[in-house]
Amino acid sequence: MSEWDATSFEGKSTILRVVREEAERLFALASPTEAWKAPTACEGWTTADVVAHIVDTTEGYFAAFDAAKTGQAGSFGQPYGLPGMGARVNEQATSFRNVSQPEMLERLRADFEAMMAILDRLGPEEWTGLMVPHYYMGTLPAYFFAAGQLMDYGVHSWDIRQGSGRAHGLTGDAADLLVPFMFVLWQSTVREDVDRSPMRLGIRVTGRNGGDYRINVDDQGMAVEQGGLDDLSTVIDFDAGSMVLTTFGRCNAGTVRGDLAVADRFLNLFFRI
User: Fold this and answer.
1) Distance from C-alpha of 220 to C-alpha of 204, rounded to nearest angstrom
2) With a threshold of 0.70, does the pTM exceed it?
3) Residues β-bridged to residue 199
4) What sign results for the dihedral spanned by CA atoms 231, 235, 237, 238?
5) Which of 17, 161, 178, 188 is deepest in the core (most CB within 10 A)?
6) β-pairing verdict for 138-141 and 199-205
7) Is 170 helix (H, G, I), strand (E, B) or coil?
8) Residue 50 in contact with residue 40, Cβ under 8 Å?
9) Three-class SS of residue 70?
10) Contact at 8 Å (CB) between 114 and 62?
11) Burial degree of 80 (CB within 10 A; 0-12, 13-18, 19+)
């Protein structure tokens, strides 16, 4: 369904709609006074730190799009890399702890509207063809930054709700849109210290971007392609939400069919971001 494929221009209006819905949920969750210092699913982070993290991330996107539009993307230099991302984003987020709740929420909403305006102006060629420097991952197509906003607002809304102790779930629209990007994150977070001897297995995902995916792991990393799984001895079934939350390290989920040892090796290949 092309309208649910955010890597194509046909999916642009869908992902921007869902980003806005998830952002409004996060604004509502972060607005009560008592929520500001409440714990979240992110270890050591309160709601205030989640808000600060999204502010820091979004404002980094502004500079990245300015550089891409002016042909200065190369000025960003080498990407920082994902292995050190956790420590750096924690340092950046906690640096805002002396800023008041009203000021941070006003800044968050202003940054959100500015970022949505940038994304909304992108035409078909720019959506897929404008290459924008990402601080951690290097140069990426512009559409990836819409997915980045969805990750921030969708997954971090989940984090805030999780901190409340109440039962809840990830919204289907957000999870469905993020599924293709989870394979990219897996490919980008294979640990250096793991056994990379050849391994094959299947991933079966439900939802609008669901399907059967063949995974090959070797000393070069992880490769993904869609295709039948009948010849594979191990398949892991995920619903869309469980795949997203597993990829981000928020839970351990998935139904393993076949060789448990192969599934265990695969699921422990990655460092969590």
Assistant:
1) 23
2) yes
3) 217
4) negative
5) 178
6) unpaired
7) coil
8) yes
9) coil
10) yes
11) middle
CA–CA dist 154, 212 (Å, integer): 24
| Interatomic CA distance for residues 244 and 158, integer angstroms | 11
Q: Counting every residue, how long is the chain?
A: 273
Three-state SS for 114? helix
Residue 245 in 3-state DSSP? helix
- Give the pLDDT band (50/70/90) at residue 207: very high
Helical (H) or strand (E) element with 214: strand 211-218
Which residue, among 239, 57, 83, has the nearest Cα to 152 in the 3D structure?
57
What is the tens place of the pLDDT at every residue in 247-270?
Answer: 999 999 999 999 999 999 999 999
Identity at 64, one-letter amino acid code: A
Report pLDDT for 272: 85
d(CA 144, CA 62): 14
What are the residues whose beta carbons fall under 8 Å from the beta carbon of 138, sequence distance 6 or more? 78, 79
**CA–CA separation, 2 and 11 (whole Å):** 6
Q: Are 2 and 10 in contact (CB under 8 A)?
A: yes
What mean pLDDT comes out for the span 1-17? 94
247: helix, coil or strand?
helix
Which residues does 66 contact at the CB level (< 8 Å), separation at least 6?
72
Specify whether the CB–CB gap between 42 and 215 falls below 8 A. no
Q: Measured between alpha carbons, how far is 160 from 244 in angstroms, rounded to an integer?
A: 16
Mean pLDDT of the chain: 96
Residue pair 94/52 in contact (Cβ under 8 Å)? The answer is yes
